[in-house]
Amino acid sequence: MTKIPRSLHVSPLKMKIVASAFVRKNLTQEEAAKKLEISRSTLSNYLSGKPVLRSNFSKICNFFNLDPETVSASPQNLLPPLQPYKESGPIIKSTVSLNQWFSEVFSDGWGTCGDILGRGSKFSALRNLGESENDAVRRAKLIALDLNHESNPFALVTCLYRG
What we know:
Layout lengths: L6 E2 L6 H11 L3 H8 L3 H8 L4 E2 H10 L4 H4 L41 H5 L6 H4 L8 E8 L10 E8 L2
Antiparallel strand pairs: 1-2, 3-4
Helix pairs in contact: 2-3
């Protein structure tokens, strides 16, 4: 696995762009650092092409309306590399017959919005969305984005209207 550096620095070829952006803000380094909620030495390091933490690099670029990919000496290090797909189990493919929903026939895993989102949860507004409409069927299902189900699932909420 490729190791991602903790810090980034401005390309020597882009220092004029960075300096120009700083001048346009019409702030001292102290004032800019205060607005950014970083130390003045971190901002000074950035402006002089010295390494700063990745999070600070992005924050400073955004503040000066600079594209991090354009000014970074190593733009390939801005984003973590994609990990190769590793199949960890069988992929279950299932189809859902949405026409059957109007006859109250649902596939496994689909439930009412109230059941899936929970009573009294922060999603209560979604749970009751349009439940008074007679020509609509609402269902929700929890979906995990990874095959190991280690990440937090999200709720897919679907509403079908009889046309």
